[in-house]
Amino acid sequence: MLYAIDRINKDRTLLPRIRLGCHILDTCLRDTYALEQSLEFIRPYMSSLDNDVQLCADGRPPPTDATQQPLKPIAGVIGASASVVSVMVANMLQLFKVTP
After folding, report:
1. Whole domain around residue 42: which residue ranges?
2. Which positions ≥6 away from 14 have C-beta within 8 Å?
3. C-alpha to C-alpha distance for 12 and 50, rounded to whole angstroms
4. Residue 68: what pLDDT?
5. Are 61 and 34 in contact (CB under 8 A)?
């Protein structure tokens, strides 16, 4: 996967002005571990779902950390090798509007 992404990113004619990246997590063929990994993966996106919920007592949005990187859009998720794990992860990610 990393090799394919490198090749695509180096070929400027294939996807001009687009750079691909990846975040690889291993499920270790355990559905419970896959669920934990899914939650860790989606955690940074959870607070950005509804900014109105995240307000200070005075009604202003919370201050942002200057070192915090902006969230990159998720274009897709490649499922696990086991169908049961993939379905469970897909169901979890759909709760946070990440659809397969």
Report:
1. 24-47+71-100
2. 8
3. 36
4. 57
5. no
Residue 1 lies in a domain: no
Three-state DSSP class for 80? coil
Task: Specify if 33 maps to a domain.
Answer: yes
| CA–CA gap between residue 97 and residue 73 (Å, rounded) | 12
- The residue type at 14: L
Query: So what's the pLDDT on residue 90?
Result: 83
Question: Alpha helices, DSSP H only, in 1-100?
Answer: 2-10, 31-46, 83-94
Is residue 43 a part of any domain in this protein?
A: yes
Res 15: pLDDT? 92
Report the chain's C-alpha Rg in angstroms. 17
- Residue 16: predicted pLDDT: 92
**Consecutive 10-residue runs of the chain (100 residues): their mean pLDDT?**
94 92 85 86 69 65 62 77 81 74
